Amino acid sequence: MKPIENYSLRNLNTFGLNASARYYASAESLDELRELVEWAKKHRLPLLPLGGGSNILLKDDYPGLVIAINLGGIESLPFGENKRILRAGAGVEWHDLVLFALKNELGGIENLSLIPGKTGAAPIQNIGAYGVELKDVFYELEALDTLQNEILHFNARDCRFAYRDSYFKNEGKGRYIITSVSLKLTAARDYKLNLSYGGIRQKLDEMGVGEAGIRDVSDAVIRIRKEKLPDPSVTGNAGSFFKNPEITKPEFERLLAAHPDIPHFRLDSGRIKIPAAWLIDRCGWKGRKVGRAATHHRQALVLVNTGGADAEEILYLAEMIRKDVEKKFGIALTPEVNII
Ligand code: EPU
């Protein structure tokens, strides 16, 4: 299988940026993936595994081999009395895995409905939404170690999950290609729904749902997401552009004195998480457009490509926002999106 030269990545990143890959190939099986990794090594080219392209900002053309990870398949294996392990190929669309779980009456990932992207990318940033993170249901993953050319297993501890973070964004960065992800889900009849995010209960009430099941929660989350977040197939974006900052108690006390209405969330670590969207909104950035980049009118944390923007325009807007938030609140925002 020969990689294609000078391949446009425009349709492979949800920001819709017009970058290209020096070489591009799709891996539909583990053998193909190994072959492509060897090919890149032989030609001394860097490698970029690509899932749904929904959490990246391509700054430039990629000088090496981009491999679209298209390993499919979902397997369901029994685990104890009322659980099952769902093992999905890294190329399975994340939401398809959610639908599979719902169809099989398995609870655990309904709050993570409609997150764009593929399953293999989910552990890298420990995807999370509406009170649940991937780590809450994670069992193990398999990854190709591109240095040793062997498949390794990683359990939850090996992955060192944290808020939008894992081993694969730190020490393990660039070395492994995740090939499958296994989740431990619970039979819906024995499963306790997670309704900790206030908006879900409110949405269920609006929907007229009294006693909710996993499907209702999934529907509620889908409605909330559709109301707040731009659809990447219509408007280029990569979800939240920055992480929600976590600050120390003394820093928080100082902020609270100046901004008594600041929304906040106390973490077990003693630190306090502040919604970046609120900080950005308070700086007057919500819905503002600079060139062809803008912040979303319903969610200030989401940067959008209003049509034909290039990476510089988005990064310029991000930098202006970062500077303003730093100046007004003394908080340094860090990107959640992977800038490549
Ligand atoms: N808010 C504003 N202005 C806005 C939007 C929000 O002031 O324009 C304030 C409100 O006080 C709101 C708070 O910010 O209560 C939090 O907003 P929201 O519930 O929309 O969530 P978020 O903290 O902005 C995070 C995740 C999202 C995830 C939602 C729901 C991060 C970086 N983002 O956003 O994940 O969907 O919670 O759980 O943690 C993503 O990672 O790409 C993503 C979309």
Any idea of the CATH topology of the largest domain?
Uridine Diphospho-n-acetylenolpyruvylglucosamine Reductase, domain 3
- Topology order in helix (H) and strand (E) letters: EEHEEEEEHEEEEEHEHHEEHEEHEEEHE
Bound chemical compounds:
uridine-diphosphate-2(N-acetylglucosaminyl) butyric acid
| Integer-rounded radius of gyration | 21 Å
For the sheet with most strands, the description reads: 6 strands, antiparallel
Indicate the overall shape: globular
> What is the level-2 CATH architecture name of the largest domain?
2-Layer Sandwich
Strand content: 25-35%
- Share in helix: 25-40%
Provide the residue-averaged pLDDT: 97
Top CATH class of the largest domain: Alpha Beta
User: What is the CA–CA distance across the termini?
Assistant: 26 Å
Query: What is the SS-derived class?
Result: alpha+beta
Question: Which parts are unreliable, with pLDDT below 50 for 5 consecutive residues or more?
Answer: none
Number of strands: 21
How many domain regions? 3
DSSP summary: helix tally: 8
Please characterize this protein's 3D structure.
The protein is of the alpha+beta class. It folds into three domains: 4-69, Uridine Diphospho-n-acetylenolpyruvylglucosamine Reductase, domain 2 (2-Layer Sandwich); 74-228, Uridine Diphospho-n-acetylenolpyruvylglucosamine Reductase, domain 3 (2-Layer Sandwich); 236-339, UDP-N-acetylenolpyruvoylglucosamine reductase, C-terminal domain (Uridine Diphospho-n-acetylenolpyruvylglucosamine Reductase, domain 1, Alpha-Beta Complex), CATH 3.90.78.10. It has eight helices and 21 strands. Strands 6, 7, 8, 11, 12 and 13 form a six-stranded antiparallel sheet that branches. A four-stranded mixed sheet has the order 1-2-5-3, covered by helices on one side. A hairpin with a 6-residue loop joins strand 19 and strand 20. Helix 4 (198-206) crosses helix 5. The longest helix is centred in the C-terminal third of the chain and has 19 residues, at 311-329. The protein is globular. The structure holds uridine-diphosphate-2(N-acetylglucosaminyl) butyric acid. The site of uridine-diphosphate-2(N-acetylglucosaminyl) butyric acid has 18 residues, from strand 14 and helix 7. Residues 129-130, 197, 228, 239-240, 243-244, 263, 275, 277-278, 281, 286, 299-301, 336 line the site of uridine-diphosphate-2(N-acetylglucosaminyl) butyric acid (EPU).
